[in-house]
Amino acid sequence: MSTSAKTFPIWAFFSLLTNGILLLAVVLLIWQQQKLTAFFGGVITSPEQINVNNSPPVVTPDLGRRHQLTYEQWVDILKQEAKVAADRHPAHLTILAGDSLSLWFPTELLPEGKNWLNQGISGETSHGLLKRLDIFDRTQPEVIFVMIGINDLIRGTRDEVILDNHQRIMSYLRRVHPTAEIVVQSILPHGGEQATWQGRDKLLAITNNRIRRLNERLQSISAKKGVKFLDLYPLFTNTQGNLRQEFTTDGLHLNREGYIVWRSALQIYSNIELKPELQRISGKDKK
């Protein structure tokens, strides 16, 4: 072999997993292992959490009460939590921004080694998220994961409007958080005819092919905006192109198994795609 020839970095090879069928196989394998671990009494270590106040901490409403909160009440809670993150500057701060899919992410399933700030609100739209991004302006996140759009589709919003809002979200986050890795996640499919969600008719009016095409355009826009794109869509679809029943509670929201798959994808993606870039940025800062 010529000494001038460049070797193909192993991490670059594995980075191909993020957009291919191998990622699906790896994530599903991890999901099966997690299920077996849980079955035989294994324990999943909880990630580091941000205490909302020094004393006493703000009590996050339980699952039942969350549905009784107004949008404004949720925004107030998120403001308090973001203020704590801004004041304390926790290491490896990672933000989840989005709707109920992000909101309901079980804290014990979030990938470890990070301080997570969940900025999800049930029923959120891309326009709503855009208007409240300033809530966490003062934080210093290492990574911001964004997933938004399904509620826009449910409300009948046109694709062009959704994509325009996404572009504005990307531009805003890139400007306000220039050192953070911005990762836009694909919109997930729905359960189709098997869905039992109360707004089932609205879901059925949205084809999963439309969601898939919207994700393709979203990926293209992300590349142009210089932000990363994590395509979760293939991980959650069955052979009919619908959300797999074993991953959902009602054809729209995820169950624990679904979140295990999402968690596994975040772990793999972070280690392969984000970690080398974050190390490079950190190295520059030390110079």
TrEMBL record:
Keywords: Membrane, Transmembrane, Transmembrane helix. SUPFAM superfamilies: SGNH hydrolase. InterPro entries: Ester_Hydrolysis_Enzymes, SGNH_hydro, SGNH_hydro_sf. It comes from Nostoc paludosum FACHB-159. Gene3D superfamilies: SGNH hydrolase. CDD domains: sialate_O-acetylesterase_like2. Residues 113-259 form the SGNH hydrolase-type esterase domain. The chain crosses the membrane at residues 12-31. This is G-D-S-L family lipolytic protein.
